[in-house]
Amino acid sequence: MSPGPARGRVRNRIRDLRQAAGLSQQQLAERVGVTRQTINAIEQEKYSPTLELAFRLAREFGVGFEDVFQFTAR
Amino acid sequence: MPIAEKRALTEIVLWSVALAYVWMRFTAGWELAGQSFGLQVVEQGAGQVFATYLGVGLFVAAVQIGVTLFLSARGQDPEFRDERDQMIETRANQVAYWTGVTILNVIIIHVVATEAFARGRVVPLDLTSPTGIVFALLAALLLQEIVRNATRLALHRLT
């Protein structure tokens, strides 16, 4: 039996990038069209965004997708 | 408190009040603040049953409209839901669905068991009469809404 895909965790650098850009959670939320609570949940890595929102966040910071999100295999 | 949590909390209170009202209208047993409620279903005519059903419906609709207007007046869009809100909504609906399925199964087993083993005897929450069935279904619907909103509130806090 194959072991299946490795379990892992999606990490992100949104808090660092947001603070570097001088944005509040509310401002970032308004720019990408979500609530402040969603930005907070993503920063705390309690919630993994959809691909669309993830790309929107990367575009907002002007960086590549993998500069914002990383997958860490356990 | 974020708008989604306020809304969920308001709805928990709303549905709980409606459930308490239905429980008082349909049952007897204990006395509390001049109201009788308990585990004994009180048989009622079709008119009274329908009046309670309609009353609960109008009460819930009026409060929902009131909350929506209040939030709109404060410049908050009560209908705005982002992807996380939608995910939470879906999970809350799943939990509410399984709660409803469980309650309906309990009702079916209770009615069948009452009919089979306790016909003519006094049993707690006898649901074999039309009044009993209406009470059980209405209470199940209200309980399902309470669970849906409690799940929504918990997920907003935990995820």
List the main descriptive attributes of the protein structure presented here:
heterodimer; A: 74 residues; alpha+beta; two-stranded antiparallel ribbon; 5 helices; B: 159 residues; mainly alpha; 4 helices
**DSSP helix fraction of chain B:** over 70%
Fraction of helical residues of chain A:
40-55%
Backbone CA Rg of chain A: 13 Å
Structural class of chain B: mainly alpha
Query: Which strand order spans the largest sheet of chain B, edge to edge or round the barrel?
Result: 1-2
Major beta-sheet overview of chain A: 2 strands, antiparallel
How would you state the average pLDDT of chain B, rounded? 90
Mean pLDDT of chain A: 91
Low-confidence stretches of chain A: none
Low-confidence stretches of chain B: none
- Our estimate of the beta-strand percent of chain B is 5-15%
Radius of gyration of chain B: 18 Å
Percent strand of chain A equals 5-15%
Tell me briefly what this model is.
The complex is a heterodimer of chains A (74) and B (159). Chain A is an alpha+beta fold. In chain A, 51% of the residues lie in helices and 14% in strands.
Describe this structure in words.
- The complex is a heterodimer of chains A (74) and B (159).
- Chain A is an alpha+beta fold.
- In chain A, 51% of the residues lie in helices and 14% in strands.
- A two-stranded antiparallel ribbon of chain A has the order 1-2.
- In chain A, helix 2 packs across helix 3.
- In chain A, 18% of the residues are buried.
- Chain B has one domain (3-158).
- Chain B contains 4 helices and 2 strands.
- Chain B has helices spanning 3-26, 46-73, 83-117, 130-158; strands at 27-32, 35-41.
Chart the SSEs and their pairings.
The complex is a heterodimer of chains A (74) and B (159).
Chain A: E1 8-12, H1 14-20, H2 25-32, H3 36-43, H4 51-61, H5 65-68, E2 69-73
Helix pairs in contact in A: 2-3
Chain B: H1 3-26, E1 27-32, E2 35-41, H2 46-73, H3 83-117, H4 130-158
Helix pairs in contact in B: 1-2, 1-4, 3-4
